[in-house]
Design brief:
By secondary structure, the protein is α/β, with parallel strands linked by helices. It has 7 helices and 10 strands. The longest helix is centred in the last third of the chain and has 13 residues.
């Protein structure tokens, strides 16, 4: 069970989180988010200088309808492994990024698409993204973009018949581990956690996160 911890922006908090058996760290590049990394040249420099500290933990940049140049700059500055599209980006946007990477020698990343789920969501809309994305993120639908801190009806996942794996997101907290482990979907490969593990926006409770991750990982042993 993979664990992505999103909304990180303080180097000491990131370093403490990297001591846990997590798999991905998320940086939010959406200015309207409370967890926006902002113009933190110091953080980007720290990330680059501490590549060994990240070890096998992948870096994920979260974007909402961003210009391609902004995405490319963030990939370079933060040495991102994944670009997570959390807005209304179309498959054509994915193709544009892929063409830019193919035509240049700049650092590239793998693509991820997030979808906002409610009882009206049609999982067929994920199909055109399957050729472009390494995995999807299924989050709770809310007003506007970004997380809601609320959980959607997980029984809706039964309607997803695609071949692309997904992370479960939205309202996951420290007491969610058992319910997650009871889910039985062949494409579920992990969780994306954020606000329910925070002391304040952008600052994660390391001990709480550690207990949660341990519960999930013990199931794999």
């Amino acid at each position: 069970m993979q664990v992505k911890v999103c909304g990180m922006r303080q180097s000491d908090n990131i370093e403490a989180m990297l001591a846990l058996p997590i798999d991905m760290i998320g940086f939010i590049f959406y200015p309207e988010s409370k967890r926006f990394v902002g113009e933190q040249d110091e953080l980007a420099q720290w990330v680059r200088e501490n590549e060994e500290t990240f070890n096998l933990v992948k870096k994920v940049g979260v974007f909402v309808n961003a210009g391609t140049s902004d995405v490319l700059n963030a990939i370079h500055d933060y040495e991102l492994d994944f670009v997570q599209l959390h807005g209304s980006e179309a498959p054509g946007y994915c193709r544009e990024l892929e063409l830019l990477w193919t035509a240049s020698s700049i650092r590239t990343a793998k693509l991820v698409k997030a979808f906002s789920i409610d009882e009206k969501f049609d999982f067929a809309v994920t199909t055109p993204f399957e050729d472009h994305c390494s995995f999807f993120v299924f989050d709770t639908k809310g007003v506007g973009f970004g997380g809601t801190g609320k959980q959607f009806d997980w029984s809706l996942l039964e309607k997803y018949e695609g071949s692309t794996p997904f992370l479960l997101s939205g309202g996951i907290g420290g007491d969610s581990a058992e319910a997650i482990l009871e889910l039985d979907h062949p494409m579920l490969f992990g969780v994306d956690i954020n606000s329910k593990f925070e002391i304040e926006p952008g600052l994660k409770d390391v001990e709480m996160t550690g207990r949660f991750v341990q519960k999930l990982k013990q199931h794999q042993q």
